[in-house]
């Protein structure tokens, strides 16, 4: 079953490329085909959607359709989506989704419309579906069905203060061991700053921890069982929690991206492991523009296996106008729109946009943007979209990963106890898959 | 007019009144009854993690008995409820007395003191999250400037419940004070005059006259706060999301996560109906108490 799923997930991007090459219907494509219709878009009020919706009027002008935006914060958006979908309602035509988090679950529940045929038959000449990140398309393909189109590419990256590193006689870390050594030295060299900060909030931990686990060479599942108590799993749990416990800020168990960005931007952290999306927030005010270096998270025994995810845009399976909805999805993920979004700091999921001269000019304006793009290039080529367990109950699996890390940060359990408790709970979740 | 004609007119008037008020009554009943009946129905359903739905009978309720998180959530809910209610009633009565006796600029003083509960809880939560941040917040800065050790506040499993109770009490104590102030203003002056003639001290007057006479008002305030406190959600969701670990995971937070993050709507409905029963139980208990202390 798993092998079949893997085969279909690998096969689909190839199919999309082939389909794109054929583009049998591209010549007949008419953006005005659904003129007069209204498409409802359930959006997460994050920088990705904000950048996209700057061009809402362009879509309406191009298609003659009306775009009704229903925008919420991330949790509230999911809450609304669950309510709408459980009621089999057609109120939402298009919604934003994180395939790495809820993809398996929503696909199994049948909430995504299958975009495979539309991506093959209903594409404008300039759309270029083959130009989208194949890794992200693969991550959005479940049981052979393409469920969403990527809006951006993102992942946790390593922010560090070049001035503090210089003052403490440190070079940019190349390995996880180097991060530990640097944290130790910074603690002794500059007691005013927090040496290292990353996510400690229970549901948020998996995002950064997964990168650590994969770099070390660990895996979430082995032989159908939870694998946190493997040697590598325990090493990842121990290293991640020790870095936060011994070198992190007080109260790190409540830290997610808001607190991490605020701490680093204020100059009170020397190293931060946080989302590439936070670059704009971190650089606000310009205080960190000249003293920040950016890298993919330093290598472990397995090298660099960064976490790479992206927001996707999907059509609801309950939509009564999936084709009109697809037109919006297509416009939102077109090279032209993604280039405009890239110029607002939304990392493009299209290598062609990343190479665009106008975008390169924007990147070249600041050294930190160059490093950001270089880190994103590594994410795009080496990334894994596995954040938490690759099972239907992925959101719940993240809770148990977070609980294990918090138990260790708060010294409430030993590594053996924490991983054993997590494995027990996670095995039960895997069994439900 | 004959008796028969008068009776007919009265009957017609009653009919007209019933007809006129019927839409509002039907609308109100439907708005209350439908969500409750729907939630009860959901509580008997099983939703798999893939969204497949089937009849579960009492399985969701029997699962509660063996669910550690449910019992833990119940404990957190009750601990937070008792601590917050005691703080808010004690300080609410004290604040009401201060406001009652405020001689200078009473209007401004009252507006200033009651302003916290006009603030949306989400804003209050965000504000306290920033103030209590162990690294960047003002609370630790103040503690340290007095030579006191910093605290982890919301990040400490042992401190998170008292801290959340303090935040909620900061916001809602003025509301209790406002209710008690209304009660104070309605107390008969004659009993105070009699106490003064008998030479009772201010403390004795408070203990023997004010407090007993205020009890029905205090119980009313307790009922109103109980309903909110047992459904504690917004401030916790903003500040800790039930953490660290599950140290502030109230039943309401747990139910929300089960329903909207783990998509088990059936079990979440069973959790929420159990919580509703607890809220009703608390309200009924306080109603009985109010009957006992009425004067």
UniProtKB/TrEMBL annotation, chain B:
Residues 74-284 form the ABC transmembrane type-1 domain. It holds the Pfam family BPD_transp_1. GO terms for cellular component: plasma membrane. CDD domains: TM_PBP2. It is found in: Cell membrane. SUPFAM superfamilies: MetI-like. One of its GO terms (biological process) is transmembrane transport. The chain crosses the membrane at residues 20-44, 74-100, 112-131, 265-286. It is a multi-pass membrane protein. InterPro entries: MetI-like, MetI-like_sf, Sugar_ABC_transporter. Keywords: Membrane, Transmembrane, Transmembrane helix, Transport. PANTHER family: GLUCOSE IMPORT SYSTEM PERMEASE PROTEIN GLCT (PTHR43759:SF1), TREHALOSE TRANSPORT SYSTEM PERMEASE PROTEIN SUGA (PTHR43759). Belongs to the binding-protein-dependent transport system permease family. This is Sugar ABC transporter permease. It comes from Bradyrhizobium forestalis.
